[in-house]
Design goal:
Mean pLDDT: 91
Number of strands: 0
Number of domains: 1
Helix content: 55-70%
Low-confidence stretches: none
Shape: globular
Radius of gyration: 16 Å
Distance between the termini: 45 Å
Number of helices: 6
Order of helices and strands: HHHHHH
Structural class: mainly alpha
């Protein structure tokens, strides 16, 4: 991440101590996940951004994704909206005309979005031993 961007993220995290700088970085990674799913670049909706953050968290932290987010004081999707609007106020992201923090609330429950999603992955693609037992 660019040094200047990291400095700005650190300043946001110092002003709003609810969330660490790593949480803001995850929002940017989630944005990249959301954009990667689109056939053409356009504005990402709050719901799409939350889903991208979930995807990025699951990709990075696997079964521990929920625990990591909760250790960062992110207990629901509304907290992602808080992070996003802190970045918007700083000029690091742009809101669409109709985007509000309320649109981030209740996108999914953390039970459904993390535990159940991970259980489905385990059902369809269970872990395998890396080596053969002789």
């Amino acid at each position: 991440m660019q040094d200047r961007l990291q400095e700005q993220i650190n300043e946001i995290a110092q002003r709003d101590r609810r969330y660490p700088a790593e949480a803001y970085v995850l929002v940017f990674e989630g944005l990249e996940c959301a954009l990667a799913r689109m056939s053409t670049r356009r504005h990402v909706t709050p719901c799409e951004l939350v889903e991208g953050v979930r995807e990025a968290a699951l990709s990075q932290f696997g079964l521990l994704a929920r625990a990591v987010l909760e250790s960062w004081n992110i207990h629901d999707t509304g907290a992602v909206g808080d992070l996003v609007f802190n970045l918007i106020r700083r000029g690091l992201l742009e809101a669409g005309e109709d985007d509000t923090p309320q649109q981030f609330q209740g996108v999914f429950s953390f039970d459904d979005g993390f535990e159940l999603a991970f259980e489905k992955v385990l059902e369809t693609d269970p872990p395998r031993l890396a080596t053969r037992i002789v």
